[in-house]
Structure formats: structure tokens, C-alpha cells
């Protein structure tokens, strides 16, 4: 049964690795492989010598880090709170509303965000002015160092509901008799969460953490592309945008491929180290 | 069984073909070869194509991909114009338009080496040429009379460095050059009510212009107006970085200005002209007249602001603000009181000297249409283009059908009646095909004239332009003593290289990298410079200069100067 799957895996996941060769060429489309000029590590050197590269790398790591931490914390918190709700209708309502934004495309979401943050009647500015916290509207998207925060908040708004689903599923696997026993022993609500729910979630949390660490260089590029502008460029441009700007739109596919390989290698190292650490501490792990 | 049947039909065809070919031996040169079994099908098709020129042609459908988004996919023969062309040539095109990202789409074509028959690659032209996606069109241009007539004078400019012609441009002027009575190019725009209130002053310099804006805003404090706005979103950033070029009295050559005598190309992004422009914006900002959100708004928000009646003035190119301006004009047509909010273009320069906002007759070399290596029958396609370029068909594609969409008066001038003008709305343009054959096909340049002196484009025919004007339009034009908007501006000087931005640059070349980096630097520093408090202006400008200085600007200018000299030499 697994044989067709292996073929699929080979064709779609391993054959394309052949494309990595273009990172070592001055690649010209439509020419045959033997007509390409091989240039060794030139494109990697160009990548690492580029001033913008490290700024871009910093942004990528920072944004991923923020998303990772915020994403986990908020999703777990929301899942626990939902789990404690006894009123089924209210629970479903909260769940539905919170995972709705997940289905909005980033293009639409970015419009909503920039409208909300607009200095011209945007609700955030209006609210802050009404409360007397600020005197003039703030150009939220025009101040570079606000960008990471705005992005983190947007990601939470968009994905928190969706991310809770897996935790809620994991919670249903916890044996209810444990809660009953704890209650008999006089554990309050918070004690029960701390000593039963959270340890029950631990394997799921660790597996997801390992997988996400592997993806830390993948911040996605849509929100950054759609919300970025000249004024926050220093903080919004990430690796994918860098590749898009200096590689693909300039027809420099070799540089794009080199950046792609760099990403893969880093992800690979991160994934293995996270898994190794989990193994050492005797926790659940990916492989 | 089925296989056998097709085989025998094929054989029968080949035999009949060779029979016909044998009979017409006297006229058919290919038959002089010794006839063996292999050459039989070849000669059959040769004689078939010889017959095609007399008999009505078989219907054939080609694919056409346009790298510009915004139109619905359609067959040409579903439009009135396309149907008429199909009747003449038997050719139909299945038109497809871009959805999503141009580079991605073109990249897919290139990677698979499978293209539509006809491709309009828009900005990705160099990529397709680099990848060998287009066929050489030179032999066809020689062969067909209309192609020869329209492109003949421009062959040198159309030929690429390897001596071949891959692209049929859309910008070859046929006949005389008719200027556009409207302003589709750059201008400093201002609400009409501002001019009205100030008593229609002649505004020539940037200082006068900003004074006008400032006075108006100060007088109407309670209306919460925005004095000045700029467009910065994404690739449209040039609307903010180009004005120093125009303010010095040059047309839109892109990143360089070209000296009329020495033909040296110079960039201006790091010069005093740019400093002066940014300083003005900085002053405006300090006075609270500049909309800070200019640097974060996207294009839609920008257009929405222009349509909101709140923005007093801005600089931009007419084609970019069309959506807002048309809305304002439509409203003004229904209710003349709304005319106050329509924007009026002004030819503003630093010193009030001669402006060059209007496009000189130009030749855009890096936009056009090509036939790809995947095309099934390039000859048939080129024959279609030849037919399309017949004068009658050019009249049909821009004026339509006599008695239906235009009239001819006793002097032979074309015009449209009021009813025809109202009839030709967006839906009609789509159905009739004006919208599809408006651009992006082999065509006379919009500014061309027909053999009888009429303008090719209805909008450029003075009679049609006059009829479209409202009373209010005529009133404001009258105040300035002109008949058309373009008369407000100086006539353009001839610039054979124009527009310099249209000179193709190679993929990943130093010129292209310079442009990408320059865009990045200006996008990053201009907002800082403009929004800085006036005492910080100088230091922000110096920081920008330092960053800008890292680019190989001298190399970029040298490359451009060489290209321009090359164009001038080729015309000698």
C-alpha cells in the first residue's frame, strides 16, 4: 500500500532537489544544463556579503520568534479557558468567532489591519485619542519598530482560534477520572489546570514546538509584503521578501535558490537540535 | 480500427495532395525537387497554403496572453470588432489576461518552455527574450505590406542587439503626431475651487503653487482639508521621486534627465533639485499641510482620498489618477456644483521657465507584443496582424462602425453625436471590442493621424474633445484662454531617445541592480527627510546622500549616455 506513496514522495519531494543545482550556476532559463555556466559558491558569497541580508535575517528571526511564543501562549491560554467553559453554546460561539479570521486571506486581512491602524479615522487612533492617551493620531505602520508588534498581534488575531483546535482535541483525551480524583483531593480549578490539563497537553505542545522550530525561517511573506512600506522597511523586510526582490523579480534565480538552500539547511539544523534536546530530556519527540 | 481509419484518410489526403501538386507543377517551385514518398505530404501542405490565398480561410483559434490584469478573458470573435476581423482572416484569438503576479506567470511559461501563441509580456519582456521565447519577426515585416508600412521607419529601433526583431511595439506613430488634449502625463493638480476663489491666477512656479494651496487651506480651516498628498505605494513610488525632474523642465525619462545639447544622461536622485523638492515637502509638513499618511497609504487609499473632496493638491500622472478623476467628472456632469472638486492640471516648475510635462513623440522599446516559439502557425498570425493594421481596420478598432459609433461630416471629419457618446459606456466598449483592441495589439500609436487627417483616437479628435466638455470645463479653460488642457503646457521638444526608461535593461545587469537599490534607498529615506522637523532636515538629507553615494551612479549614467548616443547614431 505504501509503495505508491513512496513514488509520490520521490517525485514531488526529492526530484525537485535537483533544482538546487541552479544555485551553483549563473542560471539562464531555457538553456540546457550543459550550457549553463557553473560558478561554485559565488551566489552564496553574494548573499552573505549583502548588507541587507543580515538585517533581513534578524527581522525573520525576530518575527518568527514573536509569532512562535505569542502563538503558543495565546493558543494554549484560549484552549484552557474554553475547556473550562461549561456552557456549550457560548463555548462554540467563542470558538467560531475566534477561528473565523483564519479563513480570511492575508490580502483582505491586511486591508482590515491598515484601516484599523489608519491615522485618518482608524479605530485604534480614535480610541486612544478619545481616552486622551495621545494627542495626535499615530502612523502605526510608519514607525519601523512598531512593526513586529503589529505583525505579532495580527497573527494572533488571525490564527489563535485555529491553533486552539489541536489543544482542545488533546484535552478530550485526558481521562475525566483524573479530574474527579483531584477534586476529591480538594484541588481547586487552577490546581486542576496546573496539575492535570497542562501535563496532559505536554506531548502535543512539545511535538508542535519541534515542528515550528524547524519552520522558524518561514515567516511567510504575505503580511510583511502587504503591510510593509518604505518607512518600516528596516523592520518588515524578511528573507522571503529579500529573495523576491533581489532574486525572482530581477530574474536572478540562482540567488533565490541559494537563499532557499540556506533556509533549508538552517531549518534542518534547528529541527534536529530541537528533537535531540527533547530526546535527551526524555520527552515526546518527532522521530 | 480507429487508428486504421485515420491512417487511411491521411494517406488519401497525401495522395490527393500530391496529385494536385503534380497538376500545378508550373506554379509550384517546391515541386522541382525529385519527388519521393517523404516529400509528398510536405508539398501537399505547400500547395494547400497556396490555395488559401484565394479561398476563404479555415477558421483557426490562437491563444493570446496579456501580462496586464484588468480585463475579462474572452474570444476576440465574441466582440463586434473581433468578429469582423475573423470574417476577414478566419483568425480568432482566445484572450487571457493576467491574474496574480506577472513574474510568476511568465516564469511558468519560461520554465516549461510552453507559451501561448501570442504573448504581451508587459514588464517581463527581457525575461522572455533572454529565455529565447520569441521568434524573429523581421522576415514577416518584410513580407507583409501593412506591417512594412507601419514598422518600416522604426526597424532600426526595434532591432535588438542580436539583429533580430522580437517585439512589435505599440508606439509607432503613423501620419502626423496629434497631441492629447487631456493631461494623461505628469502635472501638479489642484481643485478647481481653489483657482476659482483665487481668481484664476497664472501659476508657474512651485512656490506660487504651494502658496495657493496654503492660502486656501488656511482660509477654510473648519473644513479639515489636506493641503498636499503624494503617492508612494510599491512601484508607484516614482510619483513622489519624479517631480524634481519635471520641476527642472524635463519630461519623464525615468531615473535620468538628458541634456538636450550634450546628450549626457544624469541622475537627479542625489542632486540639489531633489533636495529642493524634499525641502518644500518638509516645510509643508511643518506647516501641517502635508498628509503624513502619504508614506503608508496604499494605492486604493490614495485614490479614495482624491475622490473624497478633501485633498487640495497633489502631483501625479494623469493615468494613475484616472479612477478618481473620472468619478469626480461624472459627479460634476450630473451636478455642476460638484465641479469645484474636479482637479485641474498646472505646469509647475522651480523657476517658472519652460515646462516639458507633455510627452514628446516617443518610442517605447520595452513594451510590446511578440509571437512565441510555441506558436503553431506564425505566418497566419502575422497575416492577421497585417490585416489588423490596414487603415480601415484601424479606424474600426478605434472609431467603430460609421453610423453606429461615429459620423462623418461633409468635410470628411469624424465626430460622434451626443447619443453615441452616451451609448459608448464601459459595457458597450467591452461588447463592441473597443476595450480589447484599445491597446496591446499591433496598432498605430494613439497620437497618430489617419491618411485623411482625422485623429486615430476619438479622444484626440478636437471635435470629440470639445463635445465632451461640460459648461464648467469650458468656463475654466476660457479663463486661461485655452481650448484644451494640454494648451496650458509647453509643446514638447523632440527627443529621439524618449522615453529613456523605455530602453531595455538586461536581467540582473548592474543598471537593474542600481535601480532596485536606488528605489530601496529613496523609499527608506524620503519619508524620514520629509517628516523630520525642519532643523533635522539637513542631517537627514546628509544621511541619505551617504547611503545613496554607495551606489555606482557614475556607471549607471555612463551606460545611459552610451545607450542614448547609440540611438542618436542609429538615426543619423
At the fourth CATH level, what is the homologous superfamily of the largest domain in chain B?
A: Periplasmic binding protein-like II
* Total beta strand runs of chain A: 2
Q: What is the average per-residue confidence, as pLDDT of chain B, rounded to a whole number? A: 87
Which range does the strand content of chain A fall in?
under 5%
Approximately what portion of the residues of chain B adopt beta-strand conformation? 5-15%
Q: Which structural class fits the helix and strand makeup of chain A?
A: mainly alpha
Helix content of chain B: 40-55%
Backbone structural class of chain B: alpha/beta
Instruction: Specify the number of helices of chain A.
Output: 13
Number of domains of chain B: 2
Supply Rg of chain A. 23 Å
Question: Which protein chains make the most extensive interface, counting residues with beta carbons within 8 Å of the other chain's beta carbons?
Answer: A-B, 24 and 36 residues
- The dominant shape of chain B is globular
Distance between the termini of chain B: 67 Å
User: How large is the radius of gyration of chain B?
Assistant: 27 Å
Overall outline of chain A: globular
CATH level 3 topology of the largest domain in chain B? D-Maltodextrin-Binding Protein, domain 2
Organism (chain B): Cohnella candidum
Biased composition (Low complexity) (chain B): 35-52
Protein name (chain B): ABC transporter substrate-binding protein
Region (Disordered) (chain B): 26-52
Describe, in plain words, how this protein is organized in 3D.
The complex is a heterodimer of chains A (287) and B (572). Helices cover 68% and strands 1% of the residues of chain A. Chain A contains 13 helices and two strands; from the N terminus they run H-E-E-H-H-H-H-H-H-H-H-H-H-H-H. Chain A has helices spanning 2-14, 42-49, 51-84, 88-99, 106-117, 123-130, 147-172, 176-184, 189-214, 222-227, 233-236, 239-248, 253-280, and strands at 25-26, 37-38. Chain A has a two-stranded antiparallel ribbon. In chain A, helix 4 packs across helix 7 and helix 9 runs antiparallel to helix 13 (253-280). The longest helix of chain A is centred in the N-terminal third of the chain and has 34 residues, at 51-84. Chain A is globular, with a radius of gyration of 23 Å. Chain A starts with a helix and ends in a 7-residue tail after the last helix. The model of chain A has no long low-confidence stretch (mean pLDDT 87). In chain B, strand 12 and strand 13 (414-415) form a beta hairpin. In chain B, helix 1 crosses helix 2 (39-52) and helix 13 (272-286) runs parallel beside helix 22. Chains A and B meet through helix 12 of A and helix 4, helix 5, helix 14 and helix 22 of B.
Amino acid at each position: 500500500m505504501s509503495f505508491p506513496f513512496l513514488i509520490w514522495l520521490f517525485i514531488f519531494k526529492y526530484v525537485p532537489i535537483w533544482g538546487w543545482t541552479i544555485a551553483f550556476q549563473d542560471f539562464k532559463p531555457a538553456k540546457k544544463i550543459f550550457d549553463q555556466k557553473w560558478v561554485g559558491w559565488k551566489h552564496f558569497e553574494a548573499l552573505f556579503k549583502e548588507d541587507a541580508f543580515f538585517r533581513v535575517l534578524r527581522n525573520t528571526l525576530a518575527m518568527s520568534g514573536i509569532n512562535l511564543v505569542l502563538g503558543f501562549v495565546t493558543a494554549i491560554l484560549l484552549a484552557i479557558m474554553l475547556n473550562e467553559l461549561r456552557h456549550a453554546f457560548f463555548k462554540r460561539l467563542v470558538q467560531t468567532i475566534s477561528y473565523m479570521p483564519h479563513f480570511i486571506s492575508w490580502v483582505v486581512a491586511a486591508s482590515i489591519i491598515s484601516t484599523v491602524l489608519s491615522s485618518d479615522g482608524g479605530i485604534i487612533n480614535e480610541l486612544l485619542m478619545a481616552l486622551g492617551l495621545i494627542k495626535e493620531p499615530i502612523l502605526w505602520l510608519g514607525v519601523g519598530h512598531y512593526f513586529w508588534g503589529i505583525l505579532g498581534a495580527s497573527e494572533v488575531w488571525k490564527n489563535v482560534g485555529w491553533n486552539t483546535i489541536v489543544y482542545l482535541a488533546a484535552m478530550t483525551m485526558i481521562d475525566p477520572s483524573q479530574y474527579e480524583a483531584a477534586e476529591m483531593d480538594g484541588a481547586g480549578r487552577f490546581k486542576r489546570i496546573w496539575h492535570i490539563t497542562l501535563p496532559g497537553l505536554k506531548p502535543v505542545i512539545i511535538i508542535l514546538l519541534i515542528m515550528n522550530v524547524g519552520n522558524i525561517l518561514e515567516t511567510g511573506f504575505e503580511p510583511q509584503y502587504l503591510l510593509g512600506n518604505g518607512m518600516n522597511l528596516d523592520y518588515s523586510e524578511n528573507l522571503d521578501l529579500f529573495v523576491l526582490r533581489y532574486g525572482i523579480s530581477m530574474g536572478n534565480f540562482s540567488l533565490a535558490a541559494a537563499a532557499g538552500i540556506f533556509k533549508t539547511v538552517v531549518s534542518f539544523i534547528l529541527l534536529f537540535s530541537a528533537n535531540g534536546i527533547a530526546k535527551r530530556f526524555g520527552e515526546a519527540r518527532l522521530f | 480500427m480507429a487508428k486504421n481509419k485515420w491512417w487511411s484518410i491521411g494517406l488519401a489526403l497525401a495522395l490527393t495532395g500530391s496529385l494536385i501538386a503534380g497538376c500545378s507543377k508550373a506554379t509550384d517551385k517546391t515541386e522541382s525537387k525529385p519527388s519521393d514518398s517523404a516529400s509528398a505530404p510536405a508539398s501537399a501542405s505547400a500547395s494547400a497554403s497556396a490555395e488559401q490565398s484565394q479561398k476563404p480561410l479555415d477558421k483557426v483559434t490562437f491563444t493570446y496572453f496579456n501580462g496586464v490584469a484588468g480585463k475579462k478573458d474572452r474570444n476576440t470573435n465574441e466582440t463586434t470588432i473581433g468578429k469582423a476581423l475573423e470574417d476577414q482572416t478566419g483568425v480568432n484569438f482566445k484572450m487571457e489576461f493576467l491574474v496574480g503576479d506577472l513574474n510568476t506567470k511568465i516564469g511558468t511559461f519560461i520554465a516549461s518552455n510552453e507559451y501561448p501563441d501570442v504573448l504581451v509580456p508587459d514588464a517581463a519582456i527581457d525575461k522572455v527574450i533572454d529565455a529565447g521565447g520569441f521568434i524573429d519577426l523581421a522576415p514577416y515585416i518584410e513580407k507583409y505590406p501593412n506591417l512594412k508600412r507601419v514598422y518600416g521607419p522604426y526597424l532600426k529601433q526595434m532591432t535588438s542587439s542580436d539583429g533580430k526583431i522580437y517585439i512589435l511595439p505599440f508606439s509607432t506613430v503613423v501620419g502626423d503626431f496629434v497631441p492629447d488634449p487631456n493631461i494623461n502625463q505628469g502635472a501638479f493638480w489642484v481643485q478647481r475651487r481653489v483657482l476659482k476663489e483665487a481668481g484664476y491666477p497664472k501659476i508657474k512656479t512651485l512656490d506660487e503653487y504651494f502658496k495657493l494651496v496654503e492660502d486656501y487651506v488656511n482660509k477654510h480651516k473648519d473644513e479639515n482639508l489636506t493641503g498636499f498628498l503624494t503617492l508612494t505605494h510599491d512601484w508607484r513610488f516614482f510619483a513622489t521621486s519624479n517631480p524634481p525632474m519635471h520641476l527642472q523642465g524635463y519630461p519623464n525619462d525615468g531615473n535620468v534627465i538628458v541634456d538636450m545639447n550634450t546628450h549626457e544622461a544624469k541622475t537627479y536622485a542625489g542632486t540639489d533639485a531633489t533636495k529642493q523638492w524634499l525641502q518644500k515637502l518638509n516645510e509643508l509638513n511643518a506647516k501641517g499641510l502635508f498628509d503624513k499618511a502619504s508614506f503608508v497609504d496604499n494605492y486604493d487609499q490614495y485614490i479614495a482620498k482624491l475622490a473624497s473632496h478633501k485633498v487640495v493638491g497633489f502631483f501625479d500622472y494623469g493615468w494613475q489618477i484616472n479612477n478618481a478623476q473620472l468619478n469626480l467628472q461624472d459627479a460634476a456632469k450630473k451636478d455642476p456644483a460638484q465641479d469645484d472638486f474636479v482637479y485641474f492640471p498646472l505646469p509647475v516648475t522651480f523657476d517658472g521657465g519652460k515646462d516639458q510635462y507633455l510627452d514628446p513623440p516617443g518610442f517605447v522599446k520595452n513594451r510590446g507584443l511578440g509571437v512565441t516559439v510555441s506558436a503553431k502557425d506564425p505566418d497566419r498570425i502575422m497575416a492577421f496582424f497585417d490585416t489588423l493594421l490596414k487603415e480601415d481596420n484601424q479606424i474600426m478598432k478605434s472609431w467603430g462602425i460609421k453610423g453606429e459609433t461615429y459620423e462623418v461630416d461633409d468635410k470628411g471629419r469624424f465626430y460622434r453625436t451626443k447619443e453615441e457618446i452616451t451609448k459608448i459606456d464601459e459595457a458597450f466598449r467591452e461588447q463592441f471590442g473597443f476595450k480589447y483592441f484599445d491597446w496591446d495589439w499591433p496598432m498605430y500609436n494613439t497620437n497618430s493621424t489617419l491618411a485623411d487627417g482625422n485623429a486615430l483616437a476619438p479622444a484626440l479628435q478636437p471635435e470629440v474633445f470639445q463635445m465632451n466638455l461640460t459648461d464648467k470645463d469650458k468656463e475654466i479653460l476660457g479663463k486661461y484662454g485655452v481650448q484644451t488642457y494640454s494648451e496650458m503646457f509647453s509643446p514638447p521638444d523632440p527627443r529621439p531617445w524618449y522615453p529613456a526608461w523605455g530602453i531595455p535593461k538586461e536581467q540582473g545587469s548592474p543598471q537593474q541592480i542600481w535601480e532596485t537599490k536606488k528605489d530601496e534607498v529613496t523609499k527608506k529615506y524620503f519619508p524620514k527627510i520629509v517628516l523630520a522637523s525642519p532643523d533635522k532636515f539637513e542631517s537627514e538629507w546628509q544621511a541619505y546622500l551617504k547611503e545613496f553615494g554607495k551606489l555606482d551612479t557614475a556607471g549607471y549614467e555612463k551606460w545611459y549616455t552610451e545607450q542614448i548616443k547609440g540611438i542618436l547614431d542609429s538615426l543619423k
